[in-house]
Structure formats: structure tokens, C-alpha cells
Amino acid sequence: MPFNLALSGMNAAMADLNVTANNIANASTSGFKSSRAEFADLFAVSSFGVAKTAIGNGVKVSSVTQQFTQGNIDFTDNNLDLAVSGEGFFTLSDQGALAYTRSGAFHVDNNGYVINNAGMRLQVYPPLPAGGFNTGGLADLQLIVGDSAPRASTAVELLFNLPANASPPASTTFDPTDPTSYNNATSITIYDSLGAAHTASYYFARSADPNEWSARLYVDGTAVGGPQPLEFSDTGALVTPAGGELSFPAYPPATGAAPISLTVDVSRATQYGSQFTVNSVSQDGFTTGRLTGIDVDSTGVVSARYTNGRSLALGQVAMTNFANTQGLQQLGDTTWSETFTSGPAQRGLAGNSGFGLVQSGALEASNVDLTAQLVNMITAQRNFQANAQMISTADQITQTVINIR
Fold first, then answer.
1. Which residues pair with 228 in a beta bridge?
2. How confident is the model at residue 299 (pLDDT cuts 50, 70, 90)?
3. Cβ 343 vs Cβ 322: under 8 Å
4. Do you find a cis peptide bond into 241, omega within 30 degrees of 0?
5. Please, what's the b/e burial string for 72-97 (b: 16 or more CB within 10 A of its CB; e: otherwise)?
6. pTM for the complete prediction?
7. pLDDT at 313 over 60
8. Confidence class for position 388, pLDDT limits 50, 70, 90
9. Which of 92, 221, 240, 371 sits at a 20 to 30 Å CA gap from 325?
10. How distant, in Å, are the alpha carbons of 52, 80, 249, 391, 395 from that of 1?
11. Which fold has domain 155-283?
12. Domain limits, CATH 2.60.98.20, in the chain
């Protein structure tokens, strides 16, 4: 009997050493979660229960459980390296089969899909045309490598101050090349529907009547309509045009693009003091943009960044959590799958209740504590040696019994 008891102890100690060895081997595996061998004693039980004088039948490995504690966050130079700070898993698709991971070492394949080293595709909530994301469905994250389409300028906002003590121009015939035919000027770059840039110049001339001015628009040196009146009150506030918008006709560019029709907002223009100042000039168009990088914010929103200053949302990283993470089934490659024991997948967004934040340019390190593992290795080794000594002692006793004459 002692042989079997000690043998079960040796097997248990060996299982403990195997678990420890696996933990130590994966001490540098990103997203790895350490395991712990758990044991239970054995008793022979009949329908009448366990006898009071019964001695146990040894030990068994009752479970090998994973410890889903947070690993350290190590920062990298790759924006597609993602780490979860808090609860939750990244969601992956392996040809339609879903898997879950804490290892966010992602890169792009030849088709632009974001994948891990096993070829599984990162899942996101796809963007909606009107903004936001469709949290009711998952999609593969694919990076758009084409150019960002241009947008024609439709609105211009000018914030300026005209000098209240200005005199009418010396030359009464307006000529943009003659500075004596206007008082002040400013310009802004606008774009047509093909993304070509054009220079819109605004010229301001003081009228003979007090507090009255005229504004002209030239695009690439070509007049767009005639002069538009500007009138200010005796306190310097804009009175005309009503609503603060100048109306100029559409300008047909020579590039073959659609005519540029601009709404010019001058509602915040003033007539104060003795200096002409331009405080703000803005417009809503932009040219063609080329992809310069990918950004991922703390809520998992993945955006493509372009040279024209635009940013396009490609999706929001789909986070998943489970009621019992220790019930997940290990698949290898630092991934897990859902089981009945784990409970159904609970999906959500990073930063929401039950889910941590996403850190871009970082990886979650293994949560293996090497010091604790080395101590556990020594303990398991001692347990193995003690059980081996038990077998040796039982052998000696048996030999003594055999030698009785």
C-alpha cells in the first residue's frame, strides 16, 4: 500500500514540476497567464461512507487553473501592438471560429487585414455611415491603403478687423494689382472637387460713406462676381449683410472640377481702431490625402491618419469577457475559446463597465513571477524526493518482512 500512496505523491509532484516548467518557459511570452496545479486527497468511499479508521489512498491533481492577473505593460514602437489594461480579451477570428487573447502583437497581412502571428484576424465593430459603430456585429479589421478622397470647399469663415479711420482708396478703379485701389486684402487656399488647390483673395475698400466698405473675391486672379457691401454700426459691429454671409457666384475652375460655390461667413468682422488685423481664416475643404499612419485610442477606436489632416475611423476593437475566465479552453498561441464552464461571451467596448482600456504601442507581459516559480520548483522537488524516500522505506520494511524465518 505505501508504494501506491508514494507513487501518487510522486506523480503529483511531477505534475507540479511540469506546470512550473511551463510557466518558466513562457516567462517572456506576451499575454501569457501562469497556471497553478491544485491537488486533492483520495479516499475509498463505499455506500456506507468512509470508515473512521480509513487511511487515504494518496493524492490526485484535481485541476490546473490559470491565473488571469494583470501582467506588466511593456511599451513598444509599433502602433498595432495593443495591450489591455484591466479586464477583457481581444476577439479574433480563425476563419470564422472565434478565439480570445490578451496578446496584442498584431501586424498587417498582404491583404491589409490586421492579424496575430497565428494568422487570426482582429475583430472590430464596423463604422456606421452616419458616425458611431455597429456594436451588433463583428468585422475583420482591414487597413485602407488607398488615398483619402478630397472635398471641395463650400464654406469660408473670416474673422478680421477693418480700421475705423481708413480713407477711401486713392484710385477709384479697382485693380487687384494696384494697392492704391483698395485698403486691405487677405487670402486663403481653397480646394475644388478634384482636390486641386486655388487661392481665394478678398479685397476690402472703404466707401465714401462712413462705416461702409465693399468686399471683392478673386480666385486665382479671376474676379468672382462683383463687390459686396459691408456696413458697420457706430459701435463697430457688422450690420450688413444681414446674417453675416457674403454671397458670391460659383467659380468654375479650369481643372474640370465642379464649380466652387462658397458661403463666406463674416459675421464676426468688426471695425475698430486704426489697424487691419486678420484673427482667423478657415475653410472646410481639403485635398487628396495619403495614408501616413494608424492610431488606436484608449477606447479601441482605430483611425487611419492622412497627409491632408483627415482621420478616418476604421472600426472599434471588440472586447470580450466571461463570467468564469478559468473555464476557458486553451488553444495555444496564447488564445482561448469559449466553453460551457466559462459562460457565454460578453461583448463590449474598452473603457465600459467590465472592460479595461486599450493601450496602443504596448504589449502585456507574461504574469509569471519567476521568483515564486523557482521557490515552487524547489518545493515540488522536495515533495518528489520525500515520496521517493517513502518508497525506499516501504521497500526496506517489505524486505524485512520477507527475511523473517
1. 215
2. very high
3. yes
4. yes
5. eeeeeeeebbbbbeebbbbbbbbeee
6. 0.76
7. yes
8. confident
9. 371
10. 18, 59, 104, 10, 11
11. Tick-borne Encephalitis virus Glycoprotein; domain 1 (2.60.98)
12. 155-283
360 with 333: CB under 8 angstroms? no
* Interatomic CA distance for residues 122 and 315, integer angstroms: 11
Cell 477570428, located at residue: 93
Cell numbers for 172, please give them: 477709384
At 250, is the pLDDT very low, low, confident or very high (cuts 50, 70, 90)? very high
Amino acid at 330: Q
What phi, psi does 393 have (nearest 5°)?
A: -65, -45
Q: Are 334 and 103 in contact (CB under 8 A)?
A: yes
Looking at 23-150, which runs of residues are DSSP E strands? 35-42, 58-66, 73-75, 81-85, 89-94, 97-101, 104-105, 107-108, 114-115, 121-125, 139-140
Reading the block at residue 220, the C-alpha cell is 486665382
Specify whether the CB–CB gap between 259 and 219 falls below 8 A. Answer: no
From the list 219, 276, 214, the residue with the least C-alpha distance to 246 is 214
b vs e for 265-280, b when ≥16 Cβ sit within 10 Å of the residue's Cβ? Answer: bbeebbbeeeeeeeee
Is residue 210 packed enough to be buried (19+ CB in 10 Å), middle (13-18) or exposed (0-12)? exposed
Tell me the CA distances in angstroms from 317 to 198, 271, 280, 302, 342, one per residue in order: 39, 51, 38, 7, 22
Residue 77: band (very low, low, confident or very high) from pLDDT cuts 50, 70, 90: confident
Three-state DSSP class for residue 363:
strand
CA 54 to chain centre: 60
Contact of 223 with 196, CB cutoff 8 Å = no
Whether residue 204 contacts residue 184, with contact meaning beta carbons closer than 8 Å, is answered with yes
**Maximum pairwise Cα distance, the chain:** 141
Q: What angle do CA 140, 142, 143 make, to 5 degrees?
A: 160
- The full DSSP string for 8-38 is HHHHHHHHHHHHHHHHHHTTT-TT---EEEE
